[in-house]
Amino acid sequence: MLELQRKVGAFNDARDWSKDAEIKDLLLNMSEEIGEFWNIIKWVPPEVGRRLIEENRAEAENFIGDMLYLVLKIAHICGIDSEKALIDVLDEYEQRFPVARVRGGHGNPLAGGVDLKADVRKNK
After folding, report:
1. Is residue 74 within 8 Å of 26, Cβ to Cβ?
2. All domains of the chain, ordered by start, with CATH?
3. DSSP 41
4. Entry pTM
């Protein structure tokens, strides 16, 4: 992942796109990309959404690529090790969402799910 971050960084640096990049604009760009992808599946049941994604696979893959590019560009500009950040988050999620308590459920405690975020953060 870090190698891809470096590649994205080099791509942007070669074009002088890193030095003046505004994080807020990149986040807005991510929001726009999400909206484009959402247009494929909005207002349909999950099984129809999955079929529509499969039927529009090239567009779905392009969305994933755009989002990864933007995340890695933000990491490059901010000097954040994206691989370490992801590993750290996954480690935290292992504690917040224990398999024995969330399997087949979800992580929204307001809707009956399990998220031990407060406990995990308190113990750090």
Report:
1. yes
2. 1-80 (1.10.287.1080), 81-124 (no CATH)
3. H
4. 0.86
